[in-house]
Automatic annotation (TrEMBL):
Source domain of life: Bacteria
UniProt name for this protein: Arylmalonate decarboxylase
Native species: Streptomyces doebereineriae
Length: 224
């Protein structure tokens, strides 16, 4: 996020609580419960915007519920608050994207929840690539080679954007390599979050000082 937001913005972060004895769904549900307090932890710091960099917890809310939560948080905080999922919808809309290939490192139940979220938001999911790390589902352990290979091996429709969900999956190097394969839009949770934040702050999303992946995404938005 620091690379995507530079230059022009300072980034401040806070963590959700660590819940080692709670399963994944329980953690995601808790993240939604404690989100107002997490934002409140910034205290008197005068933020211009905030992104909730966790897509999984907001898939539990549905697009309508997600929007309502973000609107309420924005009103309480006094600055715009968006989830990474809502940021994806904003970036996809700007780029004219209405059809997706979902690239997901999640466990199957969460991938299905993600797919339902995008469909309920009005996007068509043409195909799902279920990415694994050494034969298991673990977003933080997927290597660049594994990610690129599994996307390239999938039989993908030509008319759909690639959406890499999961803020914890490393995508910079993989997207740089895959960008040479196709002219289709490439979206990730973090890329879209930075795009929304920069757009909200009035920072350019294209140009020589902007990260190449953001510049590439913005070129799709301009074309749309």
């Amino acid at each position: 996020m620091s690379r995507l937001m530079a230059p022009g913005a300072d980034i401040y972060t806070t963590r959700f609580p660590v819940l080692p004895d709670t399963d994944l769904r329980g953690r995601l549900e808790t993240y939604n419960e404690v989100l107002p307090g997490a934002l409140g932890g910034f205290g008197s710091l005068r933020l211009d915007a905030a992104v909730v960099a966790c897509t999984g917890s907001h898939y539990l809310l549905s697009p309508r519920g997600d929007r309502e939560v973000c609107d309420e948080l924005s009103q309480q905080a006094g600055y715009p608050v968006r989830s990474a999922a809502m940021a994806i919808l904003a970036a996809a809309g700007a780029a004219g994207v209405d059809r997706l290939v979902l690239v997901s490192p999640y466990m199957p139940w969460l991938t299905e929840l993600s797919e339902t979220y995008w469909r309920d938001a009005g996007l068509s999911v043409a195909h799902v690539v279920k990415v694994q790390a050494a034969g298991r589902y673990s977003p933080y352990d997927v290597t660049t080679d594994e990610l690129v290979a599994q996307v390239r091996q999938a039989q993908l429709p030509d008319d759909a954007a690639l959406l890499f969900t999961g803020t914890g999956m490393f995508t910079f190097d993989a997207l740089a390599e895959l960008a040479g394969d196709t002219g289709r839009p490439l979206l990730t949770s973090n890329l879209a979050s930075a795009w929304w934040a920069r757009d909200t702050l009035g920072l350019p999303n294209s140009g020589p000082d902007v990260h190449p992946l953001l510049d590439r995404l913005s070129s799709k938005a301009v074309a749309a």
